[in-house]
Amino acid sequence: MIYCCIEHVELAMDIIVDEYEVAPKLEQLTAQQNLSTTCEYCDKTAEYIVAN
Fold first, then answer.
1. Angle 41-43-46 (CA atoms, 0-180°, nearest 5)?
2. 26: burial class by Cβ within 10 Å (0-12, 13-18, 19+)?
């Protein structure tokens, strides 16, 4: 599961496909989940979860 901002969604999706060879699931974070979660690739607030 990768938490990411809008700018890094494509990168996160590519990583899931490369590692697990399955289509990734893309979910938008809720306001409650979004309180202190940051993007794994930068310091912006995470907006999405990309998972296998």
1. 75
2. middle
